[in-house]
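Please describe our next protein:
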Amino acid sequence: MASSALQLLGFVLSLGGLGATIAATCMVTWKRLESNTSVRQTYQGLWMTCSGFNNKETSCELHESLFDLPIEVQATRAVMLFSIFLASVGVLVSTVGMKCTRFLDGNDKTKNAVAMAGGIMFMLSGVLTLAITSWYVRKIVQTFYGAHHKNRYEFGNAVFTSWAGAVLMLTGGVFLSCRRCSQSRPLVNLPNLRPKFQPTPNSSTDYV
């Protein structure tokens, strides 16, 4: 029962991490440029750029040309999509391998191996998401110190959402791929430690 609960917890965490990764990929707040003079805010995501005044009359424009985008946007977009695909496959594989499902009943070794494979997929997806997001932030920081003060971008909420998704998938993948967590522990029959009763001879029968 404990192993099934841990597998289910890992699956829920991984599923939440996948949802956060999808949300971060679709969000437009990867980079933020705020002008103090006109209170104009500009957000740049992986797919579009939005700008407006105090979140009013916001206009967005899609990135039409792939080759005109910075290299960090192109690489982050590709890695995030691959991470989502890998985690989606991990959802299907983990569903088959978890003990609370009826797939592959009667074959515990195969179910444990399938659950472990799904957990490894989640962990790989989390590592890819964490690595590409951290590299994207590093690029923003490098540009921040090298650009003019009016054109300095800062990383936005999508970065934190992506990091949170990566941590959730890594944690959930560890629970799913843990061998000790997926194996049921057999009950151990403890020996009877109670002392055996040995009747003592009656002193009245010792002498005739």
Notes: Residues 184-190 have pLDDT under 50 and may be disordered. The first helix runs from residue 2 to 26. The chain has six helices and five strands.
